[in-house]
Amino acid sequence: MKKFLEEFKAFALRGNVMDMAIGVIIGGAFSGIVNSLTENIINPILGAAGSTDLSAFVLQIGNIELRYGAFLSSIINFVILALILFCMIRTVNKLAQRHKKPAAPTAPATKLCPYCCSEIPVAATKCAHCASELPQE
């Protein structure tokens, strides 16, 4: 049991898990803001065409009430939230790229034969294409 608790503690206190937990909490709060934006600003503007709130659009089929306006509101919420998250992640990735150290240049694996201009391995002493002896570097 002690080992289990130690493993759980190591897992729960890992940086990624803590970051994810914070992201979920902030995402939940942010979702409330987006819902409010959609319900209180966007829906009334879109509903102006029907002189009513978009979420009030309902289709009656017999005894069934289809609230397609509320469904459209949910789609609008999702699109706004996805767009904002995309912009945030894109910005974070760009900032991370700026602070990332440039990769050290790697030595080329091939060189050109001075006689036939074919590409050959750097360590080659004889060209595989024209059989010329290569000068030592």
Trace the largest sheet across and list its strands.
1-2
Mean pLDDT: 81
Q: Which runs of at least 5 residues are low in confidence (pLDDT < 50)? A: none
State the helical fraction.
Answer: 55-70%
Tally of alpha and pi helices: 3
Number-wise, the strands total 4
The helix/strand series, from N terminus to C terminus, equals HHEEHEE
In the CATH scheme, the class of the largest domain would be Mainly Alpha
Strand content: 5-15%
- The CATH architecture of the largest domain: Orthogonal Bundle
CATH superfamily of the largest domain: Large-conductance mechanosensitive channel, MscL, domain 1
The structure class reads mainly alpha
The CATH topology of the largest domain comes to Non-ribosomal Peptide Synthetase Peptidyl Carrier Protein, Chain A
- Report how far apart the termini are: 64 Å
Largest β-sheet summary: 2 strands, antiparallel
Q: State the shape.
A: elongated
Rg calculated over all Cα atoms: 31 Å
